[in-house]
């Protein structure tokens, strides 16, 4: 894809804010002269096969997991991740990509896995605790990114799962747990530091976006803003992945 002028990005369209992601990618294509971005809704394995990259949108992670299972997409998506293809998970999508998630329903839920983090579902609180906050993301420049947090997950641990996780806990399959052992998880965005928070950048609970190779995850909803910098960042990831 070194000379590529177009990419096709699939957005998992089973539940959640998939329309908004498709619209953001469409606006990128309309404004960019050097690359054409085509975004399609993915509801079946044959649609996934048409894509260069995939977005798992925000929504309700248990509903998304059930929808993937019913559509026969769970194992194709795991194979996609194992093959090292680009994936971006936002909010519920971050939960689906995590190797471990806490705070779910009793009995846990099905995760895709691959991303070496542990997240807590609804880590910032319930729906009434949703908030908007400027996010520090140096990869996008000095201007903060407008973070929209809706029942957002919180990063509880990078790398190995925390040993003091409270039940119920969901784990991805063992086959997904140890992917990409030589590729570390890199935090790329943080909540602004609280007063006297000298270790804000190393406190996992303040990390709101991570990248591990071709896996990207944000705990907030970039698609619910008019700022397309993260969508552009993901397109550049896709172009660089060839």
TrEMBL record:
The keyword rRNA-binding does not apply. GO terms for molecular function: glutaminase activity; lyase activity. GO terms for biological process: pyridoxal phosphate biosynthetic process; pyridoxine metabolic process. GO terms for cellular component: cytosol; glutaminase complex. Its EC number is 3.5.1.2. L-glutamine binds at residues 59-61, 121, 150-151. The keyword Hydrolase applies. Keywords: Glutamine amidotransferase, Hydrolase, Lyase. It is an enzyme of class 3 (hydrolase). InterPro entries: Class_I_gatase-like (IPR029062), PdxT/SNO (IPR002161), PdxT/SNO_CS (IPR021196). The active site is at 91 (nucleophile), 221 (charge relay system), 223 (charge relay system). It catalyses: L-glutamine + H2O = L-glutamate + NH4(+). Belongs to the glutaminase PdxT/SNO family. This is glutaminase. It comes from Malassezia equina. The lineage of its organism: Eukaryota, Fungi, Dikarya, Basidiomycota, Ustilaginomycotina.
